[in-house]
Fold this sequence. Notes:
One of its GO terms (biological process) is aminoglycoside antibiotic catabolic process. The protein has helices at residues 11-21, 28-40, 89-103, 116-120, 156-171, 182-191, 228-239, 283-289, 337-344, 350-355, 366-374, and strands spanning 42-48, 51-65, 68-80, 108-111, 125-136, 150-155, 195-200, 205-214, 217-225, 247-252, 269-280, 299-304, 313-317, 322-325, 333-336, 359-361.
Amino acid sequence: MEDLILQSSERELLYQLYLYAFNRQDLPARKAFFMNRVEHGKVFRIKDDDQIISALYRLPFELRIGDQLFQMGGIGDVMTYPEYGGHGYATTLLKAALEDMNADGYELSFLAPFSQRYYRRLGFEQVENSFTYEIDSEKLRPVKVKNKYKIERTSFASSVDEIAEYYCQAVAIQDGKINRQPWWWHYLTLKNNWNVAKVYDSTKMIGYAIYEIQRTELVVFEMNYQDGDTYQTLLDFIAAHSSMVKRFIFKDYSNFYQGYYSSEPGEMNVHIEPYMMGRIVNFKSFITKYPFGNEFGTVAIKVEDNILQSNNGIWKVSKDEIKQVSQEDHWQIKGKINNLSAFFLGQSSLRQAIQFHRIQTQSIGNDQLTRFDSAIKKSILGFNDYF
């Protein structure tokens, strides 16, 4: 695998592939955030003579589920020169990246797909959605709060340390959020020209909104707040821009509707799109750490993984233990790794997966099936970090 790892002397060749593959203009700011990403990630590449012809990277993240932090590899910039397409180079690199993550102790991997069908063959499945809420500026009428908090508008770059501290204390402890490291916050300042509205009570910051004005639209990329009054204060700040823009756009990356930006939701346009695909990289490690919500006895799960062979087999799983067994026919739940990943990451219930033949069952009673299903956290993913 070592012959697939990018050498530091090859970063310029990688950058040229990136510019061509994604039809990007060479700008100093773009090169700065690209090289920052490369520096903190691990890049896999294939060369033809002195040219890098195909590449991708994986970035190190931590994702919270319950009281556990899971090691997660974010895969991005899967790219190949078009004249070298169709030879399976990207697949070779993706398999190498997954094997490398497995060896390094990663439990999960996520990516934003260009083709779900393609990545599904590699064990990934749709696990997170993107919600976009659009409303004409004159129709956003937030509720006025009685206790007016102080609000401050700054650039994201100048406030990143303060925002990061609030995020660490109030947001990163929630299910489905990435535990953003200092290097990732710095990367976000390099890549984005964002503004921030920060809300304060008498002693501390209690919420913020990250946004950008794009011609006739104000786009809100992230909002975090301690309570309803803080939320309404941020909405009031955003609505004050109604004379400057024609439309407000709110981005949200949870798996359920949160359209409370207007007292008349019917005046909004809501778009729901698939966002991230994910997969379990190391099944044993993932289940060992998984914060099951209740007891369900012991369930024998047969895992089928065409990429990472160490996941294959029958695993006896209880709330406190997982062990592999050799009896090939003595399973109660069976599924491919992509479908099992969707279930354990809260995208679908067990009964839904069974109904659509994504997961099979045998020799398991309805009561145990219900208890096992209820032990799994549902709709937990809510990170908007794009890699």
